[in-house]
Amino acid sequence: MTRYVIKRIVQAVLVLVAAYTVAFLLLNALPGNAIIDKIRTPGSGITPAEGKILIAYYGLNKPLYAQYWTSLTGVFHGNLGYSIINGNPVTTLLGQAIPSTLKLTGLAFLFGLLIGLTVAVSSNYARFRWLRTSVRLVPGVFSSVPTFIVGILFIEFFAFGLHLFPAVDNGSFSALVAPALALGMFVSAPSAQVLGGAIAMTRSEPFVHVALAKGASEAFVFRRDIFRNCALPLLTLLGLIFGELIAGSIVTEAVFSRNGLGELTVQAVTNQDLPVVQGVVLVAASGYIVINLIVDLVYPLIDPRILIAGSRSRRRPVLIGGSTES
To answer: Which residues contact 166 (CB under 8 A, 6 or more apart)?
Structure first.
C-alpha cells in the first residue's frame, strides 16, 4: 500500500509540472504583450524608460527558458508573481476569488451527484416502463443544453418571474442555489449515464440473481452488492467531473454576476495578464490532480484486488527447466 501511495503522489507531481509547463508555453506563444500594449496606449502615462523598467521587472527581456525557470522556482516557493494590470500579488487575487468558486463548485458537485444518482436509480428501478424510458432521456437533455442557457432560463423564470432567488450575487445562500443547480445539472449527465449503465449491467450478473433467489430484497442487494460494484467507474468519473465544474464555473459566474475564479480568468485573459492566467491554471490543475489522486487512493479500499494485481505485475518471470513461472 505504501508503494502504491508513493507512486500515485509522484505521478501527481509530474502531471502538475507538465500542466504548468504546457500552460506557460501556450500563453507565451500568444501574440501581443500586456506591458507593451500598455506602453503604446495613448494616455497611459508610462514613458518608454518606465516601460523598460517594467519589462525588466517582469523578466520579459530574458530568454524563454530563463522566464520559465524563474516562474517554476517561484511556484515552489509560493511566489506566483504580480498582476501586470494592477500590480497585486497573484496569490492575493487567487485567495480572494477561490472561496466564492469553492462554494459554487462544492454545492454544484453535491447537486450533480444527487441528480445523477436519482436518475441512474430511477432508470433501472422505476415501477413503470414508460417512466424508466423517459428518465433515461434526461442525461442527454442535460448534457446537450449549454450551462449559460440554463442559467439565463433560471434568471428569467425563477428570479424575475417567481422571485425565488436574486438575479445577481448578493452574498446570501439563496443567491448561490440557482447557479449551483444550473452547474450541477450539467455535470450530472455523465454520472447518470455511467452509473445507470453500470447498475443495469451488474443487475444481470449471476450473483445478483442468486441473492434475490435466496430472499434478499432489491434494496438490500443494491446497497450491499450492486452499488459497491458500480462505485469504481463512478469514482473515476468524479475526477473528470471536477474538471467540468472548474470550466463550467467560469461561464456560470459570468451569467450570475458572481465574483470568483471565473471573473478573474475572464479579466486576465482579456487584458493578457499572463501571471494571473498561469495562477488560475495552476489552481485548476492542482484541484483536478488532487481529486484524481484521492480517487486513486480510495480505489484499493473499495477493491483490494487492485493492489494484488499491481504486485503481481511487478513480479519478473523466472526461467525454470525451460518454462517460465511467476
So the answer is: 159, 172, 174, 175
* 124: Cβ contacts below 8 Å, ≥ 6 apart: 132, 196, 199, 200, 203
Angle at 243 between CA 81 and CA 280, to 5 degrees: 10
Give the residue numbers spanning the domain of 238: 91-273
What's the total number of domains in the chain?
1
Instruction: Give the span between the Cα atoms of 287 and 284, in whole angstroms.
Output: 5
Sign of the Cα pseudo-torsion (248, 251, 256, 258, in order): positive
pLDDT digits 0-9 by tens, 187-239: 888 888 888 888 888 888 888 888 888 888 888 888 887 887 777 777 777 77
Residue 58 to residue 51: CA distance in whole angstroms: 11
Say how far apart CA 24 and CA 278 lie, in whole Å. 7
- pLDDT tens by residue, 268-288: 887 778 888 888 888 888 887
The verdict on residue 150 lying in a domain is yes
pLDDT at 309 over 80: no
Q: What are phi and psi of 87, to 5 degrees?
A: 80, 0
Q: Looking at the domain assignment, is residue 181 inside a domain?
A: yes
Pairing between strand 323-325 and 318-320?
antiparallel
Q: At what angle do helices 147-154 and 227-255 cross, to 10 degrees?
A: 70
% the chain with pLDDT above 90: 0
Q: Max Cα separation, the chain?
A: 86
- DSSP symbol at 216: -
Q: What is residue 284's predicted lDDT score, i.e. its pLDDT?
A: 81
Is 51 part of a structural domain of the chain? no
Position 96 in a domain: yes
Whole-structure pTM over 0.85, yes or no? no
Q: Where are the alpha helices (DSSP H) in the chain?
A: 2-29, 34-40, 48-57, 64-76, 90-125, 129-135, 138-144, 147-154, 174-203, 206-213, 218-221, 227-255, 261-270, 274-302, 305-313
For residue 229, which of 278, 195, 252 has the smallest C-alpha distance?
A: 195
